């Protein structure tokens, strides 16, 4: 990730539906931020996500935030980042988010390196990685997670992400059982290292070369290679 005189502010949330638990994490991530824009990638018949994110932004103290949606299969143009002071990227089908951001990934990296806060929620967290684990539940046709967590992919899929953090991110960790998916990906060398983040939990990165911290009620499961296997360490806000 490019370096800058400004500290990176990257908050990666593992998902969740409980507003009371999510709002404090969003409010902390957006403290002092102005010109907030939330970007969503939604299904054509989704009439719930935009109102929900407008409500979350309001509750988090960013009532003036723009909430912009794109239909799955389309891509964001560079102009979407014009006059943006802080970027929030929501959740949904992770491969479609990776596709939607493919054209503007270098610009997002540049803006975050220059000090723009980035808040990724679920899919928005997963695509923040340099090497993004965006789906799948099979490794060499052997199950390593529930098919329900596959994001409409079968084999584990790792593709270039936004490059905001040097480790892979998986989400809904304890709730969907994706710790095993990330562990398999690290052990197989598909990604070098990673964190699987629980719902209602944030992995907070203020220095891309340092250790992130954890906020919220759950855990971030750190997965590191160990020979032909991997070591998992559970980290929480309490240490």
UniProtKB/TrEMBL annotation:
It comes from Microbacterium marinum. It is an enzyme of class 3 (hydrolase). InterPro entries: Class_I_gatase-like (IPR029062), Peptidase_S51 (IPR005320). GO terms for molecular function: carboxypeptidase activity; peptidyl-dipeptidase activity; serine-type peptidase activity. Keywords: Carboxypeptidase, Hydrolase, Protease, Serine protease. The keyword Signal does not apply. Its EC number is 3.4.15.6. Belongs to the peptidase S51 family. The keyword Oxidoreductase does not apply. GO terms for biological process: proteolysis. This is Cyanophycinase.
């Amino acid at each position: 990730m490019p370096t800058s005189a400004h500290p990176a502010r990257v908050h990666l949330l593992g998902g969740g539906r409980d507003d009371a638990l999510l709002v404090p994490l969003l409010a902390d991530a957006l403290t002092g931020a102005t010109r907030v824009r939330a970007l969503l990638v939604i299904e054509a018949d989704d009439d719930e996500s935009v109102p929900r994110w407008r409500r979350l932004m309001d509750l988090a103290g960013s009532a003036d935030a723009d909430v912009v949606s794109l239909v799955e299969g389309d891509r964001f143009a560079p102009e979407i980042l014009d006059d943006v002071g802080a970027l929030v990227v929501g959740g949904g089908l992770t491969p479609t988010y990776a596709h939607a951001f493919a054209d503007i990934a270098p610009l997002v990296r540049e803006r975050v390196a220059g000090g723009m806060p980035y808040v990724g929620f679920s899919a928005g967290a997963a695509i923040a990685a340099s090497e993004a684990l965006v789906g799948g539940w099979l490794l060499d046709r052997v199950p390593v997670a529930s098919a329900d967590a596959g994001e409409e992919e079968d084999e584990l899929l790792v593709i270039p992400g936004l490059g905001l953090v040097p480790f892979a991110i998986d989400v809904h960790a304890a709730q969907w059982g994706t710790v095993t998916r990330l562990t398999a990906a690290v052990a197989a060398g598909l990604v070098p290292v990673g964190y699987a983040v629980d719902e209602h939990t944030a992995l907070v990165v203020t220095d891309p070369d340092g250790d992130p911290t954890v906020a919220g009620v759950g855990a971030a499961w750190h997965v590191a290679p160990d020979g032909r296997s991997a070591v998992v360490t559970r980290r929480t806000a309490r240490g």
